[in-house]
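Continuing from yesterday's entry. The apo prediction looked reasonable, so today I'm repeating it with copper (II) ion included to see how the binding region is handled. Same sequence as before; SMILES copied from the compound registry.
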Amino acid sequence: MQSLINRLGLIAARLSPCRAAVVAMLTGPLVGALLAFGAVAAQENPTEVKIDNFVFNPAELTVPVGATVKFVNHDDIPHSVVDKNKAFRSKALDTDDSFTFTFANAGTYDYFCGLHPHMTGKIVVK
Ligand SMILES: [Cu+2]
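Holo prediction written out below.
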């Protein structure tokens, strides 16, 4: 991402001042959009657990202390998310419903679906 911005800057610098201004005007919103997209992607990617076809995916996830994990039900039947040691317990999640939990303490959190206890997952907080 940074190298792309540098390259755009170099291209702009090689052009005449007038052209550079035009390029800056044209690429400004583009670069902003790319940066925004990158920030959103970085935020969402590692902290979401999808529930799909009776499986938590990823089944095991490692996050830093303070991370918020979002569990999203993509199945067309309800599921829930229940920690074995009662650190968290969601209500039954309908299709596309989500449950978020912020892990303030390090540790290993084994969890299961309260409606289908054979569905299990693990969050490791370091
Ligand atoms: Cu379930």
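Comparison notes:
- Residues 59 and 121 are 5 Å apart (CA to CA).
- The longest strand covers residues 68-73.
Will overlay with the apo model tomorrow.
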